[in-house]
Amino acid sequence: MARNDLKLLGAWPSPYVMRTRIALNIKSLAYDFLEEQFGTKSELLLKSNPIYKKIPVLIHDGKPICESLIIVQYIDENWTNFGHSILPSHPYDRAIARFWASYIDDKWFPALRGVAATQGENAKKAATETVIEGLVLLEDVFKNCSKGKKFFGGDKIGYLDIALGCFLGWLKVNEKLNNVNLLDESRTPGLYKWAEDFCGDSAVKDVMPETDKLAQAAKVIWAKIRAQASS
């Protein structure tokens, strides 16, 4: 891997941190992973991201870059001669990819989180239905963007693959812990096969958490979230 002065502040269960790690792997960039503990914020994190105080933060030559999708774009634009391009080459295709990445973050993932974090059967049912409706919608997006190829980005993992794929571990955890079937082969066959290809890609395999390990972390995280919501 190419050696740069790169440090990544993050935590292994975080899907947003995973986005950065996949992008760094695609570009074959070596980096130091500085683990943050859930519920605490290191002095370096507070100094590097004083506005949001959140992970991930990529520190390149002493300069911090914050917010996961911004970091992915920075990596792609700064190391153009490394690996393959992550963002689509055409401006319209880039705009479409960014639009659906925003949808995933603003609409779809909050619903997925709500399947586990909300209390009450009606709330869980509503969140589950929203997640499934979103996946059906994203099935059509996949067909349009992939043009019959393996990934949203074509033959190789691209921007929208990273934006959605980072949540696959949490999707599996929700299915396991809540006994629900979210990503169904008969309902969304394209996304189902895409998920298999994404998780098996060399840029993803070593940073995708094991479902059982992630499930244990999720129980702790969700318990704290519920406690905060009820206090």
Describe this structure in words.
- The protein is an alpha+beta fold.
- The protein has 9 helices and 4 strands.
- Helix 4 (91-117) packs parallel to helix 6.
- The radius of gyration is 17 Å and the shape is globular.
- The mean pLDDT is 93.
Shape: globular
What is the number of E strands? 4
Q: Calculate the terminal CA-CA distance, rounded to whole Å.
A: 47 Å
Please give the largest β-sheet: 4 strands, mixed
Strand order of the largest sheet: 2-1-3-4
Taken as a percent bin, the fraction of beta residues is 5-15%
Low-confidence stretches: none
The percent of residues in helical segments reads: 55-70%
Class based on secondary structure composition and strand pairing: alpha+beta
* Element-level helix/strand string: EHEHEEHHHHHHH
User: Whole-number average pLDDT?
Assistant: 93
Rg from C-alpha positions? Answer: 17 Å
Topology diagram in text:
Layout: E1 2-10, H1 15-26, E2 29-35, H2 43-48, E3 57-60, E4 63-66, H3 68-78, H4 91-117, H5 121-146, H6 159-165, H7 168-178, H8 189-200, H9 211-230
Parallel strand pairs: 1-2
Antiparallel strand pairs: 1-3, 3-4
Helix pairs in contact: 1-3, 4-5, 4-6, 4-7, 7-9
List keywords for this structure.
about 230 residues; alpha+beta; 4-stranded mixed β-sheet; 9 helices; about 55% helix; about 10% strand
What's this model, at a glance?
By secondary structure, the protein is an alpha+beta fold. The chain has nine helices and four strands, in the order E-H-E-H-E-E-H-H-H-H-H-H-H. Helices cover 57% and strands 10% of the residues.
